[in-house]
Structures are given as structure tokens and as C-alpha cells.
Design brief:
The strands form nine sheets. The chain has a four-stranded antiparallel β-sheet. The termini are far apart. The chain has helices spanning 27-38, 54-59, 110-120, 123-130, 162-165, 173-178, 208-223, 272-287, 292-303, 360-380, 392-395, 431-448, 545-557, and strands at residues 75-80, 84-85, 132-136, 139-143, 147-154, 166-169, 186-189, 191-192, 195-202, 247-258, 260-261, 267-268, 305-307, 310-312, 315-334, 337-355, 411-414, 469-475, 487-489, 492-493, 512-523, 526-539, 561-564. The chain is globular. Helices cover 26% and strands 27% of the residues. By secondary structure, the protein is α+β, with helices and mostly antiparallel strands. The protein has 13 helices and 23 strands. A hairpin with a 2-residue loop joins strand 3 and strand 4 (139-143).
Length: 567
């Protein structure tokens, strides 16, 4: 064994086969890194996921180091992370992990806490609390404020669940929208649903009423999120209601489908999937009304990105889970072989879209844009894995009759609190749905004040009349779901073609979305849900014979009508 193997990975050089752990294909290495880290920390409480026998837990040799405590004169408050908190120590090339202090414990730095506090602190209080620059005798000096920000430590060792510490970053924008390319997931370390204790002290005695104001300011900072990747749902806290002035849209949702999994196959309902879908649809829509450079630039300006080393972005999300069950779909593809897939059933949740800015005029415009994109997203697809397909458990249950098929699809709906976001659907022209699809391009052109209305011609999914078709019908059950698994006509199939895509290597993203959208109508002046669905097929045609034959079939069959483009 080489000498380097005796050195913890944390202290090894960022070289291949040494400390370089930011590639998912080296997932064993990152878990080794985490295990070595935890060995230097206080004992981690047992969790059900680890499934370690009690006798083995008792006999494990663990550190007896106590958790850190703030001094007697430090005011503290505790807050629990809603999902995850990610901060970047900047210590390891290409690998995001929190600052690690003495005794091996992660902490949120006081300098970061002060910066977050200052951003929301009233201007008239900034100098008093956080300090200011003054000029004396022609020299610029810093005059400290009265507050000292001590940062935050985890309240206990529940953060140290090794199955949850390793998070993943997996950007699929290019693969999902532009072209079929291979994308990889990179690991990062983030704290999962841990409780943090924050500390603030003062150089002067303060009354309880003033401390109350100080903590209210800090909670405003928490209301906009702290740490990195806030726009994707990281860095929010359970006890803090979003800063109401920053939330431009709240949508109540329920849904079911396939749960994402971490590198070690631990299932996790990940709120960043909402931003991924909204961002992806934004890019598709913009690609249909302007050139490639402008479409990418505006998408980045809206949903975030790095421009010349600086983060830009005006919109972010936070998702509050209200009722969630994680389950499994088990199937047997061959004798004596059993597979399982993690699933979620979200009974209720609230998606908040947050404005990261201070312009009331811009806020109004962005609310209109986001409302269009949210309606578009729920109308034509879903969120998370397998969002391009309708949930087969609901709309094709016989597919699972022999218990030998994997789970496919998802199904999302607005809950009662957000039913006003539904598009009504009359007969025979599919009502407001048809009008919404026709109008959304021009609405975005007007809202974004675009003068260059070219479109991207070489991407796979572009929302332009020359690049996409939408077909629809009304019914209680799905007509099209069987077409994805067999012949749609005599000896004609779209199964495993360029149109439908395929999972087996080489995997390929398809060119068709299938959605069962609840049908709502206006009855006696009120919004009313029927027992029917609007079945929607969204197709981005290519020149293949399979695709052209299928489009000809839809045109001749007359069960679906083409609602976009019309004419």
C-alpha cells in the first residue's frame, strides 16, 4: 500500500486516484472522504436508513468530543433547514463542501452571516449594527458596528448521516433541450434538514426589544435563503415564512412519480426539480422567439448563472412539502430477478417563486412571465424524472399486470388552493387551452420587449410553429398511452424510435410528451372539474419515416385534433 493511502483524502492533493473526488464515477472515493471526516467528529446518532445492528453500533470506537457552545454573552436562535444547505469552503478544486472548523464540525461562517444580515438591514441601522467606512484626516477607515456575528453550528450530530451528506449536481439542460449528449453528475457536500444554532453578540448592552428587532432582521435574511444555490431551493428554513415582499407567485401542487436518488441510491424528493423544469421550458419558449445567444442569455438572467465570474439571476424557488410519502415500485423483469424503483406521492406542497431584486416594476413584469411558464409546465408535462410521460399507474394500470415492468411517468395537478391556474377546456376547440398555446409566444415577446424574433433551428425542442405540434382530445381514459408500447396501427409503431426515445444504451431523449390534463369548465359562472381529461401529445418532429408516418396517422385518425400550430 502506497504511503499516500495512510493520509485522509481531505489532506491529499487534488490529483486523479488521490484526493480528486468531484466526479460521480468515483463515488466510492467521496463516501470514503465522508467516512474519514465523520470519524473525527462526535458520535453520530443511529438512523433507520443505516441499518447497522445495535451490537455493532455500541462497539464502534467513536470520539467523545462535545458539540461546540457559544459564550454566555452570545444571543442564539435555532433554525431547521427545510431541505438542504450548501456552502462552499473554496478549499478543494472542483469540489463543493462546507467550511470545516476545529473538531471536524461544519459551520456557517460569521462573515457570511454578516453579509446576509447587511443585505436586508434597513439603511438607517446599517452603520450602527454592521459598521461603516469613515474618513479621518484624509484617510479612509472602518468604524465597526456594535454587532458581532458568530455564525452557526449544527445543534447536534444528526447532520452526520453519511447516506445524506453526499449531494449531487447534475445539469441536464443541454441534453434535455438542445441535443443528445452525455451528462454526468458531480458530488457536493451539503447539510440535509439539520438544525443550526446561530449566534450574535453586541459590544454594548441591548434591551430585549432591540434584540427582537435584530433577530427579525436576521429572519428576513433567512427568508430569502442563505448559502449557495438558493435559487434552486437550497438554504431555506422551516421556521421562516418566505419574505412576502419577495414571493411573486405561490402555487399549491400535488403529484406522484419517480423519486430521484443520490449516488448511493438513497431516495430523495428534491425541490430543485421545479426550477429545472421552469428553466428548461423558459429556454424552449425563448428559443422559439429569438436567436440562440439571446435565448440563453435571458434564461440565465432570469433563472441564474455565472457571467464573467459573477452570479446573476432574478428568480429562485422554494418548495414547502406539506404531505409526502416515499415508496417503492418493485418488478421482476426476469425469473429470480427483482428490481425496485423509488417513488413519491406528494399529497400537498407549495411552490414559491422568489424575486431576487428591488424593482417593483420589474417584479410585476416577472410575475406575468412566471405565471405563463408555470401554466405551460403543468399543462404539457410534469416535474422530476419521467416528466414527459403520463403516470402509467393511473392511466395504463394493465401495463403492470405481470409485475415485470418498470415504473413510467408522473402526474401533477394544482390543488384546490390554486385551481385558478387551470386553463378551462370547452368543446370542440379545446377552449382556452388552444388559445393559451397560440398566444404564449407573442405574450413573451411583448413582456420581454424582444425585437429580434428569429428562432433557433438546430435544437431538438424549440417552441416555434415550424418545430413543434400539439395534438389534443377529450376523454375519461388515455387513448395514446398504449401507442408507446405497441402498434398504433397495423404493423406501425413508435416504440423505441427517435420519436419516443429509449433508455437502453445508447440512451436517447425522445421528441414527444404525453400529458393527461384535468379538464375544467366554467359552469354557472364557477370553475368546475369534470371527470374527463384533456389528453395532449406534444411533438417536436424530425424527418424520420417513423415520425412522419405517425403524424399522418394522427391527421387521418381524427381522434386527436391539432391545436398548434393552427391553419
Amino acid at each position: 500500500m502506497p504511503d499516500s493511502d495512510y493520509i485522509p483524502l481531505m489532506f491529499q492533493a487534488q490529483l486523479s486516484n488521490r484526493g480528486k473526488i468531484h466526479y460521480s464515477r468515483e463515488s466510492e472515493t467521496v463516501y470514503q472522504w465522508v467516512q474519514e471526516w465523520l470519524e473525527s467528529c462526535p458520535p453520530v446518532p443511529a438512523v433507520e436508513e443505516e441499518n447497522v445492528p445495535l451490537w455493532k453500533q455500541r462497539n464502534q470506537s467513536k470520539s467523545t468530543v462535545k458539540m461546540p457552545a457559544f459564550g454566555r454573552r452570545v444571543e442564539t436562535k435555532e433554525y431547521t433547514i427545510n431541505w438542504r444547505l450548501v456552502t462552499n469552503s473554496g478549499q478543494d478544486e472542483g469540489f463543493i463542501r462546507p467550511v470545516i472548523g476545529a473538531k471536524g464540525l461544519p459551520f456557517y461562517p460569521g462573515s457570511s452571516m454578516k453579509g446576509a444580515f447587511l443585505r436586508v438591514c434597513p439603511k438607517e441601522q446599517q452603520a450602527k449594527y454592521c459598521g461603516e467606512e469613515i474618513t479621518e484626516n484624509g484617510q479612509t477607515k472602518t468604524k465597526p458596528g456594535i454587532l458581532r456575528f458568530h455564525g452557526a453550528y449544527p445543534l447536534d450530530m444528526s447532520w452526520g448521516n453519511k447516506n445524506r451528506l453526499v449531494d449531487i449536481i447534475h445539469s441536464q439542460q443541454k441534453r434535455q433541450v438542445e441535443e443528445n449528449v452525455i451528462t454526468t453528475a458531480n458530488p457536493q457536500i451539503s447539510l440535509y434538514q439539520a438544525t443550526l444554532k446561530f449566534g450574535i453578540s453586541s459590544t454594548k448592552h441591548l434591551e430585549a426589544t432591540e434584540w427582537k428587532k435584530i433577530w427579525e432582521i436576521w429572519e428576513q435574511a433567512l427568508g430569502t435563503g442563505i448559502g449557495s444555490r438558493v435559487s434552486a431551493g437550497y438554504g431555506h428554513f422551516i421556521e421562516i415564512h418566505e419574505n412576502i415582499d419577495k414571493v411573486i407567485l405561490s402555487v399549491h401542487l400535488c403529484g406522484q412519480g419517480l423519486t430521484s436518488e443520490l449516488l448511493n441510491k438513497t431516495p430523495e424528493f428534491r425541490p430543485n426539480m421545479f426550477k429545472a423544469v421552469l428553466r428548461g421550458h423558459t429556454l424552449r419558449l425563448l428559443a422559439g422567439i429569438t436567436d440562440e445567444v439571446t435565448a440563453k442569455r435571458i434564461t440565465q438572467e432570469l433563472w441564474g448563472g455565472i457571467d464573467n465570474g459573477t452570479f446573476i439571476g432574478k428568480l429562485g424557488i422554494n418548495f414547502i412539502v406539506e404531505e409526502l410519502n416515499i415508496g417503492k415500485h418493485t418488478y421482476n423483469p426476469a425469473p429470480k430477478r427483482s428490481n425496485s424503483m423509488s417513488t413519491y406521492d406528494l399529497g400537498a406542497g407549495k411552490l414559491d417563486v422568489i424575486y431576487i431584486g428591488n424593482s417593483s416594476k420589474e417584479k410585476i413584469k416577472l410575475k406575468k412571465i412566471v405565471t405563463q411558464i408555470v401554466k405551460f409546465s403543468v399543462l404539457l408535462g410534469g416535474f422530476g424524472k419521467s416528466w414527459r410521460r403520463a403516470d402509467h399507474r393511473i392511466f395504463y394500470p394493465k401495463y403492470f399486470a405481470n409485475h415485470d415492468k418498470p415504473m413510467i411517468g408522473c402526474h401533477w395537478e394544482f390543488t384546490e388552493e390554486s385551481e385558478e391556474f387551470y386553463l378551462t377546456c370547452g368543446k370542440p376547440d379545446i377552449g382556452h387551452i388552444s388559445k393559451f398555446i397560440q398566444d404564449i409566444r407573442q405574450n413573451l415577446i411583448n413582456l420581454l420587449e424582444l425585437s429580434n424574433t428569429n428562432y433557433v433551428q438546430n435544437w431538438r425542442e424549440v417552441w416555434h410553429p415550424n418545430k413543434v405540434q400539439v395534438w389534443a382530445r377529450i376523454g375519461k381514459i388515455s387513448e395514446a398511452v398504449e401507442w408507446f408500447h405497441g402498434d398504433y396501427s397495423n404493423n406501425q409503431t413508435i416504440k423505441r424510435t427517435d420519436l419516443t426515445g429509449k433508455i437502453n444504451p445508447p440512451a436517447k431523449v425522445g421528441r414527444i410528451w404525453h400529458r393527461m390534463y384535468p379538464r375544467y369548465v366554467i359552469k354557472d359562472g364557477n370553475l368546475h372539474r369534470t371527470n374527463q381529461y384533456v389528453e395532449l401529445l406534444t411533438i417536436f418532429p424530425d424527418d424520420s419515416q417513423n415520425t412522419q408516418d405517425f403524424l399522418q396517422f394522427l391527421n387521418n385518425d381524427k381522434k386527436f385534433i391539432k391545436i398548434f400550430p393552427q391553419g
